[in-house]
Amino acid sequence: MGLRIFPSLSMLVALFIWLLDTRARAQSNGSAQALDALLQDYAYQAFNRPKTGIAYDGVVPLNLTGITVSAMRLRSGSLRTRGVKMYKEIEIPKGVIVSPYVERLVLVYQNLGNWSSVYYPLSGYTYLAPVLGLIPYDASNLSAKNLPQLRINASGDPILIKFEGRRSEPAGSVAKCVSFDSDGSPSFGNVSSGNFCSTTQQGHFGIVVESSALPPAPGVAPSPPPGTRETGGGNSKVWIIIGSVIGGLALLVLLALFLLWLRKFKRRKKMQQMEKAAEVGEALHMTNVGNTKAPAAMVTRTQPILESEYVP
Q1: Roughly how many angstroms between the first and final C-alpha of the chain, as a whole number?
Q2: pLDDT value at position 199?
Q3: Which DSSP category does 13 fall into?
Q4: Whole-angstrom Cα distance, residue 245 to residue 194?
Q5: pTM (2 decimals)?
Q6: Among 53, 178, 295, 306, which one is least packed by beta carbons within 10 Å?
Q7: 50: left (phi over 0), alpha (psi -120 to 50) or beta
């Protein structure tokens, strides 16, 4: 019985671990850093015998519809001496240095689409174009996940990001470039002719205008992540607490089932050992002694001899 319980218990434990991992990943989608790690994974999955300098488009899950991601593998030396003429909307000049140094790197491109203000909210400003990201990673292992980000620095001309199809700002207002560093801190700059923004390093970039200068456009508000509400900060905490309690109870139930199986297994093992010992021993003949039965030897091993029969 215990041996039949064990596979079912293993399946329950595996299912519980999978549920915890799924819930943890769903909760981590609320942070930009977690999104970067997730998109790095989906971008790397696009590689299948990749060629250097070719952009490969990744596929994101349905709950991130509206986001596009691509990956391009390059040699660090080639990036420094040649640059990249055009990678989606990004132009990378010569003289870009990678640190720490790696022989090959992958540049992950992100277009956050209508999720821009969800992951990079900017109080007092409205986005005129989607946020674009450029993140470098080590290319030594194309199946790796949760890789640390590398750093790139343009030592000569800046990296240019062209925002095609951006919304026009109202008359009298000024559009601004905004860039976000690794900790999400924004910095502003001027928009160059042709809807270009410039940078000297990796990060996330967009074009914004002050909200007071731009009337809200119908139907362009970003949708919140599936299963959440825009004003549901308190509800989110409640569901996290409820999920944690349910997960803890499930873990206790699994632990109790394991201990019950272990106890039955030990008892069964002990019974098997006793039965084996009984089969090895010699069976004794039972005889009636009064009203009770008692074991008795069938024969004696040494025959008695009277002293009178002893002849020296």
Answers
A1: 68
A2: 95
A3: H
A4: 54
A5: 0.60
A6: 306
A7: beta
